[in-house]
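User: Batch of two.

Assistant: Item 1 of 2:
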Amino acid sequence: MFNTQHNIPKSELESRIRKLQSDMAEKKLDGVLIMQNTDLYYFSGTAQQGQLYIPFEGKPLLMIQKEVDRAKAESAIENIVSINSPGQIPDCLKQNKIDTPRTLGLELDVLPTLLYFKIQKLFPATEILDISDQIRLIRAVKSGWEMDIIEKACLLADQVAEGAQEFIKEGIPEIELAGKIEAFARKLGHQGIIRMRLWGSELFYGHLMAGSSAAVPSYLSSPTGGTGVSTAIAQGPGHRPIQRHEPILVDYVFALRGYLADHTRIFSLGELPEDLMEAYDAMLKIQKLVKKIAVPGISAGDVYEAAIEKVTALGYADNFMGAGEKRIRFIGHGIGLELDEFPFLAKNQKLKLQENMVIALEPKLIFPGKGVVGIENTHVVTENGLKQLTRFKEEITIL
C-alpha cells in the first residue's frame, strides 16, 4: 500500500538520535521535541504530521496526528502512537512512562510563535531552550548512506543540464523553456519539492533566465533574481524570449529522495561577447581556488575572504554575487535535505569545515542590463579539499 522501498535504515536513525542525545547532554536538556517537517523526517524517517520526542537517554516517542499507519510503515522508530493534537503531548509522555522534562529543546529558528506559546502552556514548569543549531550541525555532516543518494542526485542534475540543450531555441519564452526542462527533470524522478529553512524563502526547481532579465535582483538570498511571471513571485523565469548571443543561466536543483544537488551552467545561442567570456573564465578560477583551500579545519569565513581577495585581484569585485551595495555576501552554502544548510561560505562565518559536509559552490558575476555568468557545482569536503560531484562540462555551451 505504501511506498517503503527507500525507507531510512534503522541504524541510520539510531546514529542520528545518538548524536543529538550527546548534544543534549552538553546543553543539559531532558528532552527535545522535533516538529519541523525536514527535521522530523531526518530523525524519524517519516514526514507524516506529528512530533518526535527524544529523551536525554532511552528510546524516542513518535506521536502522529496524520497518518499513523503510514508513519508506522515508513519509520523505523519503535514507539509510534496516534494522538489527535499537540495538546495531548504531555499526557502521551506520561502514558509512555516518560517524565515531564525540566528543560526542553525546540527548533526555535523555525517554530511559529503561536506554536511556541502553545508548548509553553503545555509545559508550564519547563524551561525551553533552542536546539536548532545542534540539529543543523548534525545534519551538516553527511553519512555514507546520505552521500550515496546525493551522488545519485548529482548525476541526475548533470542529465538535466545535458537535456536542456534540446529545448533551448531562439524566441522561446523563458517560462516555456523552464517548463520543458522541468518536465524533463520530473521524468528523471525529481521529487518536485525543494525545501528551504530560511523563513520566507521558497524556490521552484531553480532559476532559468537569460540576458538582462537574469540580472534583475530579487528578495531571495541568491545572487540571481529574475523578473518572474508576476510581482507575486518576483523571481525566476519570466515571459522574455530567449535571444542570440546572450548568457542563458540554467541554475537548477535536482531533488531525489529528499536530498538535493545544486547545479548551474551557462548556455548561449551563438558566441557570447568577449568580455562575458573572460568574466566566466574568472569564475572558473574562483572555483578552482576554493576547491583547493576548503579543507577540514578552515573556517567558512576564511574561505569566503580568500575568494573575495582573488576576485578583487581579477577586477570583478563590484559584480561578484550581485551588483552594487546589495551584493550577497557568500559564495557557497551547505546542501542536503534543505537548500540552505550549514555551512555557509560567507562573510564572518566562524564554523569550521568538516569532512563529509556537502557544499554548493556558486561563484557568479552579475552585469545589469547584460546578464549573468558563473558556475555552480555540488561538492563534498574531503581531506584534500572539495571533491566535485556534479560533472557536466564546465565550458560555456554554445548552441
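Item 2 of 2:
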Amino acid sequence: MVKHAVLLGDPSFFRIKGGKNPYTRTRWGFKKKVDRVKAISQWKRFKETIESLGAHIFVLPPQREYPGAVFPANAGFLFPKYELLPWGRKRFYLSHLAFHRKGEEVIYRDFFISKGLPVEKLPYAFEGEADFFPCGEFYIFSYGRMVKPGFRPRLGWPPYEYRFSHRSDKRNADFLQRVIGDAPLVQVCLTNVRCYHGDTALFAFGRNRECLLAYRGAMDSASWEGLERCWGRHLFPLSQRDAENFTANSFQLDTPNGPHVVFPEGVSAEVRRTVSSVGLPYTCVDVSEFFTKGGGSVKCLLCDLGPYVEK
C-alpha cells in the first residue's frame, strides 16, 4: 500500500537550547521555558491526527543533546519528492545546519542511509525543506541576510537586544538548480527575521500544489513581484494576523481520499475559505507550545518524504 510518509522527532527532551530564533526568547533576551508535559501531549495528538488521515510515520528517537530534532523539516529535502519511485532511486540532500544544531546532521544522515537513500550535503548554510520546496511547476528557494546571532547594545529599554539571523545562504541557489535540472527555481529574499524560514510565510497547496499562500511582509518587493508573475491568480496573500499565527507553516497530506490540509489552530475564516475553494478539506491541530516557545508549527514538526510503499 502506498502512503504519504513523514519523519517526526520524539519530543521527550524538547527544550530551548540555542535560542536562535525570535520565538525562543523573551523581550529581555532570556530563553523561554517549555511546558514539556503540554508539548508531549500536543505532539501525540498531532501524530494521531496525521496518522488517522493515512500518513506513514517514522519517528526519530528522543535526542537529549539535540532538542531541535523535534523539528525535522530542517533535516534537508528529498528529491524527487512526489514521484512514486523506490527510495534507492531518490536522494536525500542534507542540510548545513547552524552550530547549535550541527550534531543533528549525523542523526539524519544515519536514518536516511538506513532506509536505503543515497545522501549528499548542501555546501552552505541551509535548513532543508523549510527553505526549499516545490509549488506546481516551480521550486521555491528562500534565503535571507546571514548574521552572527547574539546580544548587542541599542538605544532604549532594555539597553540591549538579541540579533537573530535568517538560516539559508543565497549561495546554495546554483547547487539547488543543478539538483532540479530544468525546473524553474524561484528565489525569495526574506527580509523580516520573524519569518526566518520560507515555510513561515509560504505554503504550497492544491490538487497539484499549484497554489501559494504568501505573506507580503516577509520579503522584499522584487520577490513579491516574482511570485505575482509566476503564480498569478493562484497566489493568495496572507494577512499579517495569519502570518503571525504561522498559518503558512501548514502541511498538505496526500491521503487515500485525496489531498488534505493540516492547519495550526487559529487559522482565519478567509484562509479556510481559500483552501475550500480549491476543493481541499482541512483539519486544525494545536501545536502552540512548539510555536510560541520554539518558533515551529505544523510543517516544522515533520520532514515530508512523499509517497512510500508500506510493507
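The chain has one domain: 2-309.
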